[in-house]
Amino acid sequence: MKQVRVGMVGLGTIHAIHAEAFKPDTDKDTAGNETATANSPRYDIREDPLGKIAAVFDIDPAKSSKRALEFNCTAHSSYESMINDPDIDAVDITLPHALHYEFVRNALDSGKHVLVEKPMAPLASQCRELIEKAQQNGLIFTVAENTRFVHAYQEVKRLLDDEIIGTPRLIRTFISGSEVTRLRDTSLWKGRIDGTVGGAIMDAGPHSFYLLKWLFGNVGELRASASRLVNESEVEDHALVAGALESGTLFSCEFTFTAEMPWNERLEVHGSKGTIVVDQLSDPPIVIYKGELDFYGTAHKAVPHDPVWWKGSSIVDGVNDFLDAVSRNRPTTVDPRDGCYAIEIVEAAYRSCSNNGQVIVLS
Ligand SMILES: NC(=O)c1ccc[n+]([C@@H]2O[C@H](COP(=O)([O-])OP(=O)(O)OC[C@H]3O[C@@H](n4cnc5c(N)ncnc54)[C@H](O)[C@@H]3O)[C@@H](O)[C@H]2O)c1
Description:
alpha/beta
């Protein structure tokens, strides 16, 4: 299969993880056996990457030239020149939120397939416009929503399909991490409204709202509150969004950027016959409880403990899924309409916050 030629824009932290999808597995000896060195334990690296990094662009020219040397590819001096490069088929956008809409739109107008990091775009109306444009132009476009590729969540989907815990009554998600240093540094976009458009709800919300939609269905109503501990920042670093799904199942999603611990995600699904708890830092990450006397629960070992790479691996899997979709001209596993739906919930949550936690009815 022909490799997809990709132009990468925004060569920062998460770009480095996306780039892993393009590196061939070098950890094989000449007989093709796995060796225990280098990068293979971290990601499911393919021997034959589905894509090739053909061009790079960053507003910082030093980053562009460094990465161009590493990937042996073209360093463009402007985004316009990259999206008009006939030697690229697709663009992978890992930029601050405020730039997503414009950069995606321009790439789709230039006839390139697009993968964009979350949030797809800051407004749902922009997301809808981009999805329609991609359809009209016959291009593959989706959001790099790695949640879909997190092994523990894929396993939860199987457990729910098998009705292991009965009917879900209450779902809780908690995304926590330490962003205090970046939020305090006003030279960075993370704590500035002109870079992020919003704080924890815009940044972490799309993951949980996508997860709700994928595993449990649409949100019926919600209310939200947000607060800020980091004074130097302009955006909220803590938020709580809670309500009910259309099915009647209750939910609450909490986000914080001030937890001094490794980046983590928790999910609790409380059902009529038991509870599933996912905690990416726990060993194993999934435990199932069956009733009030099941004090120790059952460690569900189908997904191994991987506190370091659980997220990176899912991001690489998402990039590979996009590349495979482009090569085979098939829909991506992450339906862009679900990425857009997550932004509708983000908007509703901000609407509630700015109206003192008013209940917002969505359906
Ligand atoms: N899926 C996930 O779990 C996950 C995790 C982290 C970040 N992200 C997303 O990835 C995106 C980038 O985040 P990051 O942490 O890598 O940010 P970052 O600040 O580390 O990198 C952003 C890069 O964009 C470049 N840039 C800024 N303005 C530009 C412009 N006008 N033209 C070209 N380049 C420009 C910067 O120089 C920098 O290299 C965000 O949308 C973020 O939400 C997703």
